[in-house]
Amino acid sequence: MDYEAALSGWDTVLIKVNFITAKTWDTGATTDPMVVEAIIERLKNLHVKIRVVESDATMTNADEAFEVTGMKEMCERNGVQHLNLRHVKDRVKIDVPNAETLNSITVPRIVTESAIVSAAKLKTHMSTKVTLGMKNMFGLLPDKLKAKYHAKGISKVIVDINTVLKPALTVIDGFIGMEGRGPSDGTPVRMDLIIAGTDIVATDATASRVMGFDPHEISHIRRAYEKGLVNIDDVQILGEKLEDVARTFLKS
What we know:
With 252 residues, this protein is an alpha/beta fold. It has helices at residues 3-6, 33-44, 62-68, 71-77, 109-112, 133-136, 147-151, 154-164, 200-210, 219-226, 242-245; strands spanning 12-16, 49-54, 81-84, 91-95, 104-108, 115-125, 129-131, 169-179, 187-197. The longest helix has 12 residues, at 33-44.
């Protein structure tokens, strides 16, 4: 994958990790610091400013998760700032065209002025069936009490966010995935796999198929496809053949 082409023109890159909980990477719940470190190593050659970001959630303190997961130590060792987006006060409002449920979203200004790498996890989810690159973008919202978005229909919210915030790259950490009661209480699944792409919807559709899901049955992926964001049935796959790495994950 051509990092340089995908990030051309940007001087700042935000690596958005998944810290739905403070559990370590080997549980399958959170992004592996080793994966993020590999991304950082690739980005260093581009001479961009790098930040690793997450925001608090209703049940999660992102600052604690940075510490417990080992992400803070990795960032400090590489001279990279880690940032809890909840504490960033300079924010901007973005209107969502043809919205599913949110007419606008408010995010830290730095989110709109940086290239984004969605460093997600290969996991099931009790509400959305899977949580991959698109669902990971939900964490860019700086609100602590995110339950209000679930009340609006989380799959619709995910589509709205990804309509206006498009990551330059999506890197799904599948070294250890999670099946069953995801996104935090499921069973670890060793896959030894990274799924990466420049189109987040196509990448999520491919990852869903690896997990044994039909992406047309994943509401937010299907709706993104219906809205013309991408064709999920004509995805160019490089590297391993999908059938050689696929495994049927236990559903939530």
